[in-house]
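Researcher: Let's do a round of design. I'm pasting the structure tokens now; please hold your answer until I've finished.
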């Protein structure tokens, strides 16, 4: 069983993976460096779960139920664990959480907001940071993006309050570029 009895004060971090990313270990280590305030889980195709469990025995690893995309996989984990965490976020298996993410975590303890944003550093195939993606700081730009069905920030690097996620019945898988 999963040690979830005292998780209310922690943040759930989900990594959807196909299990073959050469950067997965770096992703996992970047989450581990944030400390015990984060509870990190992987979700992967069923065929990949055994080898991932051997490679990363300290992580909870969930089998996905059909390969229907990243947001469906996140939905699956949240249907199992979401009620045990006030906040959740996710990171792709080829990205890393950097030191600035600690500020987002710190804000989660006092903020009344339902979504907290941080910047994301995308990495190239060699593992080097190739660009930083900030959130859109202009309300007009945010509104213009939303009107055409685009979300004006990257969702990796943000934390979402699970109560807000439940209020909107999870992700809207019809949206372009984000859910």
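Researcher: That's everything. Go ahead.
Model: Designed sequence:
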């Amino acid at each position: 069983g999963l040690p979830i009895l005292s998780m209310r004060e922690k943040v759930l971090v989900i990594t959807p993976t196909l299990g073959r990313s050469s950067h997965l270990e770096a992703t996992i280590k970047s989450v581990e460096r944030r400390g015990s305030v984060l509870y990190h889980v992987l979700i992967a195709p069923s065929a990949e779960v055994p080898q991932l469990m051997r490679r990363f025995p300290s992580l909870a690893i969930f089998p996905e139920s059909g390969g229907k995309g990243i947001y469906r996989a996140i939905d699956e984990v949240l249907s199992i664990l979401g009620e045990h965490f006030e906040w959740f976020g996710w990171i792709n298996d080829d990205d890393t959480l950097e030191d600035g993410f600690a500020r987002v975590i710190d804000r989660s303890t006092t903020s009344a907001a339902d979504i907290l944003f941080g910047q994301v550093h995308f990495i190239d195939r060699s593992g080097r940071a190739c660009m930083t993606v900030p959130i859109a700081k202009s309300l007009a730009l945010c509104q213009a993006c939303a009107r055409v069905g685009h979300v004006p920030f990257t969702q990796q690097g943000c934390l979402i309050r699970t109560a807000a996620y439940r209020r909107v019945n999870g992700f809207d898988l019809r949206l372009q570029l984000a859910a």
